[in-house]
Specification:
alpha/beta, Rossmann fold, six-stranded mixed beta sheet, 488 residues
């Protein structure tokens, strides 16, 4: 008789300081599938669920699909929406006995009235399924508590930032579940949490302090009986006492697992200052960019509006860096992706080739500046749906909603009706801009854009600008978290 495996995903990275709410509609707009629709949507895809399905088909498992939903980072999910999402995940367990559970979650989610939804979900699932294998995948930016780790037989976090390995980590998780069945493996998990919550700006896995931590993790994983070592940098805009860095080791021996987690946690604490990074302000960053443009290197210089990263809870419509970018009026300049549904609707009314006055940005909040007033020519209008081929998208269809390209002097500004970080160079191409032919690009993103843009860039300048995801954490009114670096 084939094994019956519950699969599901509820994924949200919560920013307690974001101006953007997270109702059910926000989940339905981004990615929301129930039951068998999950299998139809993800079969053959290089996604978390696609990986689970790939191993299930090889092993002959029967998958019991529940819910696969995600929302763009924003405020804590409201009480009613969270209750609904959780009920959909648990629904198949009310009348179906399963042999194991495979869940894909984020680890950085909050909901109104529920400080740690992942802990709540895992505890609720465990209560219904009993003592069966329970394997979970999590984002590298997870904030974890010991109680959640103890509920799971194995936990696999992303090994890359930008996150280009979610499919591979889900394959690894499902492969371990197969070994648990076929080889009678009985893994255990161990958790360590140094009292630190670094900003994400210096949390890349190709350079900086995370390299040291992952080098240690790989060294330990080469030892017999060690199945996985996951380094979680944490997501700092979750205002909770438990937020921050944690290490989870999955092994066959609890003492070994705990020793590994403790030692890497001690290393993280010892190098914590390396996670801090000072960024140039808007004026300084633009001066630096102009100096770089004087060289013979024709590759574009990129300004990253890291504090307005939609992928970290930013509104994607803050105006100040954009205002200065437009004012510089440097030839062959382009900026993306400004979330401005009203401006997109206006562009559609104005029509391609025509000029009108536009009031750009700062529509979600004016806490970070007022709209940019410009005369702009509408150069392109699209439905915003296109395949992207960067290391993250891998050929999947990206949907930025109805979108337009406005031209203001020498500057093109790409605007969308969906709030998404500019993580794919194909966003520019879709709206008629070849990024490699530009001298200066501006992207509203913090880190994931590097997977697609860094190979084509002369240099990337991260800018200290206003927004809900600025790496200077002392700008925000934390209520629950009080350790490093806020205590500096």
């Amino acid at each position: 008789m084939s094994k019956r495996i519950l699969v599901g995903m509820i994924s949200h990275e919560t920013n307690c300081f974001s101006p953007i709410p997270t109702p059910l509609a926000a989940w339905q707009e981004r990615s929301f599938f129930l039951g068998d629709d999950i299998l139809q949507r993800h079969r053959g895809r290089t996604s978390n669920m696609g990986a689970f399905m790939e191993i299930a088909e090889r092993e002959g498992w029967e998958l019991i699909p529940s819910i696969a939903a995600s929302a763009t980072p924003s405020l804590p999910t409201d009480t009613e929406t969270y209750a609904y999402l959780k009920s959909m995940l648990l629904a198949p367990l009310q009348d179906t006995k399963v042999d194991a559970v495979l869940l894909g979650m984020h680890g950085g989610m909050m909901a109104e009235g529920v400080e740690d939804p992942e802990l709540d979900i895992v505890t609720s699932v465990r209560a219904l399924v009993g003592d069966v294998p329970f394997v979970v995948t999590l984002d590298l930016h997870s904030n974890l508590q010991k109680e959640m780790v103890e509920q799971c037989d194995a936990i696999f976090g992303f090994d890359t930032n930008p996150h280009i390995d979610s499919y591979e980590r889900a394959l690894e998780a499902a492969e371990l579940l197969a070994r648990m069945f076929n080889e009678n493996l009985a893994p255990v998990t161990a958790f360590a949490h140094p009292p630190m919550m670094p900003p994400t700006i210096n949390m890349r896995t190709e350079e900086g302090p995370m390299v040291k931590l992952f080098d240690e993790a790989r060294r330990y994983e080469a030892q017999p009986g060690v199945l996985n070592v996951s380094v979680f940098g944490g997501f700092p805009f979750v205002d909770a006492a438990y937020s921050g860095t944690s290490i989870v080791t999955t092994a066959l021996d609890r003492e070994t697992a705990q020793k590994i987690s403790d030692e890497i946690a001690q290393l993280a604490w010892s190098i914590r200052a390396e996670f801090l990074k000072e960024l140039p302000d808007i004026e300084t960053a633009l001066v630096q960019a102009e100096q770089l443009l004087l060289s013979d290197d024709k590759r574009p210089v990129i300004l990253a509006d890291v504090a307005d990263n939609a992928g970290g809870g930013g509104s994607a419509d803050t105006p100040e860096l954009l205002r200065a970018f437009i004012a510089r009026n440097i030839p062959q300049s382009a900026a993306a992706l400004l979330w401005d549904p009203a401006a997109v609707r206006q562009a559609m009314q104005v029509g391609v080739g025509n000029v009108a006055h536009f009031s750009l940005g700062a529509h979600s909040t004016q806490a970070y500046g007022t709209p940019v007033e410009v005369e702009a020519r509408v150069a392109a209008i699209t439905d915003g749906s296109f395949p992207a081929y960067g290391p993250m998208a891998r050929g999947s269809v990206v949907n930025i909603g109805l979108a337009a390209r406005l031209v203001i002097g020498n500057v093109s500004v790409l605007i969308s009706s969906r709030r998404l970080a500019c993580n794919e160079a194909d966003i520019f191409r879709h709206l008629g801009i070849e990024p490699t032919q530009q001298r200066l690009l501006m992207v509203k993103s913090r880190g994931h854009f590097r997977a697609s843009f860094q190979p084509l860039a002369r240099e990337i300048i991260e800018v200290d600008a206003p927004g809900a995801a600025n790496p200077n954490l002392k700008r925000y009114p934390y209520q629950q978290y009080h350790a490093w670096p806020l205590d500096l």
